[in-house]
Amino acid sequence: MTIPDTSTAVSERPAGASTAPRPFLDVRDLRVHFPTDDGLVKSVDGLSFQLEKGRTLGIVGESGSGKSVTSLGIMGLHTTGQYGRRKARISGEIWLDGTELLSAGPEHVRGLRGRRMAMIFQDPLSALHPYYTIGRQIVEAYRIHHDVDRKTARKRAVEMLDRVGIPQPDKRVDAYPHEFSGGMRQRAMIAMSLVNNPELLIADEPTTALDVTVQAQILDLVLDLQKEFGSAVIVITHDLGVVAELADDILVMYAGRCVERGPAERVFHEPRHPYTWGLLGSMPRLDREQRDRLVPVDGSPPSLINLPSGCAFNPRCPYADVPKDDVTRTIRPEPTEVGDRHWAACHLTREQRERIWTEEIAPRL
Amino acid sequence: MTAGRRGKSRRPVLRSGPLAVLTYLIRRLFAAAVMLVVIIMVVFGIFFLVPKWTGVDIAASFVGKQADPAAVEAVREKLGLSEPIHIQAWEFFKGIFAGRTYSTGGDVVHCSAPCFGYSFKSEQAVWPVLTDRFPVTLGLALGAAVLWLVFGVAAGVLSALKRGSLWDRGAMVAALAGVSLPIYFTGMLSLATFAFGLKWLDAQYVPFGRDPGGWFGGMILPWITLAFLYAAMYARITRATMMEVLGEDYIRTARAKGLPERTVIGKHAMRSTMTPILTMLGMDLGALIGGAILTESTFNLPGLGQAVLNAIRNQDLPIILGVVLITSLSVLLANLLVDVLYAVIDPRVRLA
Fold it and tell me: Which residues cross the membrane (chain B) (predicted)?
């Protein structure tokens, strides 16, 4: 098992026009729009973020905020195999280790899929083919990118199953997905994703379909493997608690845009966007007094066809009237730096935010 | 069938490999044997018991409408119709496996095993009639099945992949025509055009044993006509199933692995798409082998379907009974075959 060396990845890159080396994963102004009969659905609308090898980024948001669309966009899965459906319109730039993926040919991106970037899906039962054994599916994933015979690939599959903690891997390799428990299935899925030592791993709600008792094991496993392989990891979840523990950075998405981004510690303990406050308030926590009720975020996510003008969050924001001149309803806020490597897209001034956070929000949490 | 796939049922039991397939097979074979006995009894009941209740004299109907009472009495004695019903049933059942002798006085008719009855109208045992005609029908059904599988499934897959395109619309209109147009129309039309008009093909049935080339030439039009109807149905089912399968999570996983699209479609998607098609094929082949009445009569093929049509015209009950039994048997066997193939294709079936 070769472990990619993180230190060489940066120095290998040829010196380009810009002096600062490009991050390992650099997403710039990503837009994914779906034309439908009702109008253009802007699932992702101007998203930018960077991620280095060995680091974990947590993308948080509610259903329909564009988390999964973003991950499928990076993998190039919106443009492949969309038979007869109207194709997604994707613009912006996705740089993976110096290669721009959106302008690269589909065949080139296919060669990267599964080899340099891999994905773990939410429900391992439906994400694994029911008619093929676990081993066969892992062998297939390995052999498509490695010119080895079946025996070697099978050995590798058993090795991977063992590494992700599946007991009796030499026997279980011949079992079918329905013969595994939920947690074991997700372990097998992880083994399949990691079989080619990908440098970028995207985990799309990896624990949502699992029992609570298994969730922590799976997350620990992902983190362990990241340390071992030094890959860049994106964990997508609607559960802020999940990413708070394992991510280095957190990106909070709302209606296809980033509303707050920064180091996990800062976003979790000093959030600077009202939506993040809402997420924290609606999150059950063991360290909280039991008599305190959870506070849901009022209202429901906006239609992605007709976004509210100005700040997309303004109809649900309790502080929409704090900034002057109705600015929250007319001008879309751009991300501004609110701390060290910490951005928020909100019209509230620094003073207003800090006052509301310390006086109103923090005491309730 | 998709309901089971989506369900999050968890079966921790580990039972895979050849042993599971074998136990499944034995279970299925046993069930088929039981089913066979039940079918024979039910068919017997329909032909002998139901008329008794409704007051129809079977002996009279076996002989014909203008039969003299003496002949009717003779048949009644020969068939043992005056015996109690369970004796009759046993005799009938025994006859299938051990042969049977119909006799009264000096008139002795022997019907050797497997005895499916004796036609007093055409003065012959039923079984040789069936075995004579069976190969014709089998050849028709199998040849057509190959055609409709290849063209129907291919058209369906292409339609699913080019959803909404001109090809898709054209193929689906053709499929609608295939499903709606009756065989005696398309059959006559193809005969008039290709056999009598253009004179490309012969409209004559030649037994395979006599002249394989002539047999093949004579079967082309019947095959195409029959396959047109079924290909239309198969194209529609294939298209719908393929479209559903393409939306499955495991297809997305296959792409995420970096598999080329031809593997994703040709291997991962096709495997799931073929499951319901296989079920249909089993049912359709089973029913067709019992006689494709319309096709056989349109093209004058001496198969089981034509035999049963003639028998119905002549009120020749034993022949009808024999063909009904053969049809039931072939459906039963086809189902057994499908069940076994199913277990090979879908590992989850072995547990059920």
Answer: 29-50, 136-161, 173-195, 215-235, 277-299, 319-345
The verdict on B157 touching A (C-beta cutoff 8 Å) is: no
Q: Give Cα separations from A159 to A178, A231, A335 (angstroms).
A: 21, 19, 45
Grouping H, G, I as helix, E, B as strand and the rest as coil, residue A123 is coil
How is domain B132-308 classified at the architecture level of CATH?
Orthogonal Bundle (1.10)
Same-domain check for residues A234 and A155: yes
Backbone torsions φ then ψ of B212, nearest 5 degrees:
-55, -40
Of all helices (H) and strands (E), which one includes residue B155? helix B126-161
Contact call for B256 and A77, based on CB within 8 A: yes
Shared domain for A304 and A224, answered yes or no, is no
CA distance B210 to A103: 66
Cβ–Cβ contact B45 with A under 8 A? no
pLDDT of residue B337: 85
Q: Is residue B248 within 8 angstroms of chain A, CB to CB?
A: yes
Output the pLDDT for position A16. Answer: 45
Q: Decide if B14 touches A, using CB distance below 8 A.
A: yes
DSSP conformation letters of A95-116: EETTEETTTS-HHHHHHHBTTT
Q: Which of B258, B264, B271 sits opposite A131 (nearest CB)?
A: B271
Q: What is the mean pLDDT of each run of 10 residues along chain A (365 residues)?
A: 42 48 92 90 92 93 89 87 74 92 91 93 91 94 94 94 91 92 91 92 86 82 85 90 86 93 91 90 70 75 87 89 85 89 91 88 79
Q: Does B209 touch chain A (CB under 8 A)?
A: no
Residue A334's domain spans which residues? 273-364
Contact B264 A181 (CB under 8 A): no
Q: Which residues of A touch B270 (CB under 8 A)?
A: none
How many Å apart are CA B74 and CA A117, to the nearest integer? 86
Question: Nearest CA of chain A to the CA of B27: how many Å?
Answer: 21
Q: Are both A250 and A288 inside the same structural domain?
A: no
Interface membership of B244 toward A (CB under 8 Å): no
Question: Is residue A240 in some structural domain?
Answer: yes
Q: Which residue of A has its CA nearest to B161?
A: A83
3-class DSSP state of A29:
strand
Q: Rounded CA gap, B172 and B179, in Å?
A: 10
Do A190 and A280 belong together in one domain?
Answer: no
> Averaged over B108-127, what is the pLDDT?
78
Same domain, A303 and A205: no
- One domain, residues A354 and A209: no
Measured CA to CA, the distance from residue A163 to residue A312 in angstroms comes to 44
Per-residue pLDDT, A345: 92
- Domain positions in chain B are 20-115, 132-308
Domain termination site, one of A224, A254, A284: A254
Residue-level pLDDT at B107: 65
- At residue B71, the pLDDT reads 75
Round to whole Å and give the CA distance between B87 and B81.
10
Decide if the complex's ipTM is over 0.90: no
DSSP A276-306: HHHHHHTS--TTS-TTSPP-PPSS-PPPSSS
From chain B residues 261-320, the ones with a CB under 8 A of any chain A CB are 261, 263-264, 268, 271-272
Close Cβ partners of B214 (under 8 Å, ≥ 6 residues apart): B202, B204, B206
3-class DSSP state for residue A261? Answer: strand
Looking at the fold, whether A142 and A281 belong to one and the same domain comes out as no
Q: Does B350 touch chain A (CB under 8 A)?
A: no
Q: Do A114 and B257 touch (CB under 8 A)?
A: yes
In this complex, the residue of B253, B263, B347 whose CB is nearest that of residue A131 is B347
Shared-domain flag, residues A64 and A208: yes
